[in-house]
Design goal:
The chain is α+β, with helices and mostly antiparallel strands. It contains 16 helices and 11 strands. It has a 6-stranded mixed beta sheet with strand order 1-2-6-3-5-4, sandwiched between helices. A 5-stranded mixed beta sheet has the order 7-11-8-10-9, with helices on both faces.
């Protein structure tokens, strides 16, 4: 498998990975314009724009967009994150030009029909309501907010209902003008693809767009704090986070291995201590989420009102203990899990296209897969213990609680325990 990269004069990048033996391909347009690129009055507009892309262009109606891909047996979708919006399709090899044409059309030529805006506004307001009714989803939005208060990266991707309810056609058009510059776009394709052919198609579709500067996102600054909301639920939903390395940090793989050892599976410390040995919860896990300039080591658990105090204290204790007695066997297991997850996940063209687009957005190059595996293998037990000590010794943490929270310890008490 070979990754090839081209750059158009206007700044748009084209990256492909041919996967011999396949008869299909995944193609997409990744735009480095997400929630953290919004001003406060724009919060939620990147996600709104993603929805509107499928609601009609200058050449196709909403139905014609769907039919163009589904008539050839493919599928099309999109997502918005804090740092990126992606529009992608999976099709057979002969239909790659069609898929790229449709994707370029919805990104470059949306009409933002006022009637469709109102229909989709209602859909998004329903999505916001559904998130608020999903405790193990919304608690992460609240955790993000207290981790990065009063910053774009700390705000919800969906946006508050009052802002979504007020967005106009001009607001959507202005965000496209501000953020959908060629230098912020990556055309990525993986599977049965021909690099030169895709570059030619990209030149035809995007080459005429003039280069312009969208400007950087504001820097992330982890602060920490507490959010709690009492509600008559069956469980307390508990999320705790400390700052961890960002994607461009040399310790990014160390943090992911630490997260796996802490709470990445049934053999992990948190699962064994909290669930298997003490029966404090049904679900508990740790994950290392990363952005370009910051990251969060997050631990989540759902537990009963009478167990939340013990669970919260145990969580802090396990974070601290990782700095003292993490074993080579645990690190080796976490490395193996991480490599297996990476390699197994890349057996589909969709995963490959996602990987090369994301890596190109982060480093402006696509590291070879062997280089990534070598960096994972290079992480030592000492590296993991040192990073755990650094993260827990920094003195900051974010916490979010939702449900019957009366018996939960407060933020100050957990910080004191972390520092003890």
């Amino acid at each position: 498998m070979t990754v090839e990269l081209a750059r158009l004069p206007n700044g748009l990048r084209v990256v492909t990975e041919n996967m011999p033996g396949l008869k299909s391909a995944s193609v997409g347009i990744w735009v480095t314009a997400g929630g953290r690129h919004e001003r406060i009055e724009q919060n939620g507009i990147a996600h709104f724009l993603e929805h509107m892309a499928f609601k009609g262009t200058e050449r196709r109606s909403a139905l014609e967009i769907a039919e163009a891909i589904e008539d050839v047996g493919g599928f099309i979708n999109a997502y918005t994150s804090r740092e990126m919006t992606a529009y992608y399709a999976r099709v057979l090899e002969a239909d790659v030009p069609l898929a790229l044409d449709v994707l370029a059309d919805i990104v470059l030529n949306p009409v933002f029909d006022p009637d469709e805006i109102e229909i989709e506004r209602g859909v998004i307001l329903q999505e916001i309501g559904q998130a608020l009714d999903t405790p193990d989803d919304i608690v992460f939005d609240w955790l993000q907010e207290v981790a990065y208060p009063d910053q774009p990266i700390g705000r919800t991707i969906l946006g508050p209902a009052e802002r979504v309810g007020a967005f106009s056609r001009d607001d959507l058009s202005n965000f496209v003008t501000e953020r959908y510059a060629p230098g912020q776009m990556i055309v990525a394709a993986a599977g049965s693809v021909d690099h030169d052919a895709i570059v030619r198609i990209a030149e035809d579709l995007f080459g005429g767009i003039p280069a312009r500067d969208s400007g950087p996102a504001s820097a992330a600054s982890f602060k920490g704090g507490e959010f709690r909301r009492a509600r008559n639920l069956e469980q307390v939903h508990f999320a705790l986070a400390v700052e961890s390395p960002g994607y461009r940090d040399d310790d990014i793989y160390t943090s992911q291995i630490l997260a796996s050892a802490l709470g990445g599976g049934m053999s992990s410390r948190l699962f064994q201590e909290a669930r298997e040995k003490r029966g404090l919860c049904y679900s508990i896990f740790a994950q290392a989420g990363a952005y370009s300039d910051s990251g969060l080591m997050t631990i989540y658990a759902g537990t009963g009102a009478d167990e939340i105090a013990d669970l919260a204290e145990l969580t802090v204790d396990e974070l601290k203990r990782a700095a003292d007695d993490m074993t080579p066997a645990e690190v080796a297991r976490a490395r193996a899990q991480m490599k297996a997850g990476l390699l197994m996940g890349l057996e589909s063209p969709s995963s490959r296209a996602e990987r090369i687009a994301r890596l190109l957005a982060i480093w402006d190059r696509v590291p070879d897969l062997d280089e990534t595996v070598a960096r994972i293998d290079a992480v030592t037990t000492g590296d993991v213990k040192a990073l755990a000590s650094e993260m827990t010794g920094a003195g900051g943490a974010a916490m979010a609680l939702y449900g019957p929270v009366d018996k939960a310890p407060d933020h100050a008490a957990l910080l004191a325990r972390l520092a003890a």
